[in-house]
């Protein structure tokens, strides 16, 4: 027996709600259940609610109140990051491409899902795959399907990815090249020799390996190349053995990019600074304090800066003429210049207090005077007078202030505009961050726990995929990844028990996280089943 509501249409077209006390009875003739109305309470807007309270109270006198099943919260898992990365994984077409390769090879292992989990793991807490398998997936994040994965499948997923990395990077460029600006006539490339720790442990530790062999295997050196678009999006990565000549590696990179239809390739960063490199278009970062030409002829050259994008100004300077002609582009960040000026004012206040605390009788013979003179913080602003006393030098202070927020770039290709040269600074920062993360921090593959060069190469190639997903999110939202990561931490999956039943529910989204998900076009609610 139960209380039900029945809707009826009135003469004027409005809907009226009626309450009835009904029960289900079995009709032996029709052999089916039918509703039998026990009592009509009338229209809902005319029924006195006190009638239902008295009815409920009389029923509770007979049967008593129901037993409270109790709600027990069991565990809380991180959900925001894994949900966003999983959604972007499919939105970018990475999962679809990997499943296509798996179907072609008739693979029965969930390599696409394992690589997605590794990508999300590296974007939050870089470490070895062992930590992802033993701690992060079962303890930190909500991904129930990962409970059936085996550790061996993680390593086999890396082998599978390495076999198809070139094809996947080419397919992603074809799908999203227009959005990332990769179909323009300019691509920046860099090449660096990296020394990578593989760790004391090993994926396979042969009993016949000597101690010297194990010590040698703990470190590996590779040439690692990276190509990025104007917006700093990784387009393709390369790994070459240590014995490969730099010129040969750069030639291979250029041929591979031209095969994709990318004609203008400019080498930046460490590869552009190498003296033995000839025949390639290069943009070099010139040290501000590296020579008199930069100080006296470039930075001191009068002229106005012209704005380029948000918080960036550029100025082009040509030194000499004819065979000795050199072309420079000065990039200036006004916000960074202001921050640097405030920091210098604070340093000069400390320096003034230090100079006042010195004993005049000791002159240049005390240990504190020698420390100030050789200090990396104060030394650039000091000079000595004839009495060997330290004084602040206004000329040096003005010279240092002239360099605030600036970087100087030199291009050997006159067909590049000043704007293109300035954009290379952003590409160089992305490449430098990528190499630094490969070696030590960020999306680092250390400790790898690999012995074979093939596994190390797969790990490095996968780093560019992490960067691809991260850069897509940054461009879509206009926020750095560190900020997005803090916002996504607020979304949790709560596992709780009501009686003998177990449930999982997503926490409410904050306004900032909801705005981020809408910009990324990610579903607001994750699949928890």
Q: Tell me, what's the shape?
A: elongated
Largest sheet, in brief, is: 5 strands, antiparallel
Give the DSSP E fraction (strand runs of 2 or more residues): 15-25%
Distance between the termini: 33 Å
How much is the radius of gyration in Å?
34 Å
**Average pLDDT figure:** 80
In words, what does this structure look like?
- With 529 residues, the protein is an alpha+beta fold.
- The protein has four domains: 2-63, no CATH class; 78-282 and 437-486, no CATH class; 286-333 and 405-411, no CATH class; 335-401, no CATH class.
- 44% of the residues lie in helices and 22% in strands.
- The chain has a five-stranded antiparallel β-sheet, with helices on both faces. Strands 7-6-5-8 form a four-stranded mixed β-sheet, sandwiched between helices. A three-stranded antiparallel β-sheet has the order 1-2-3, with no helix packed on it.
- The longest helix is centred in the first third of the chain and has 30 residues, at 151-180.
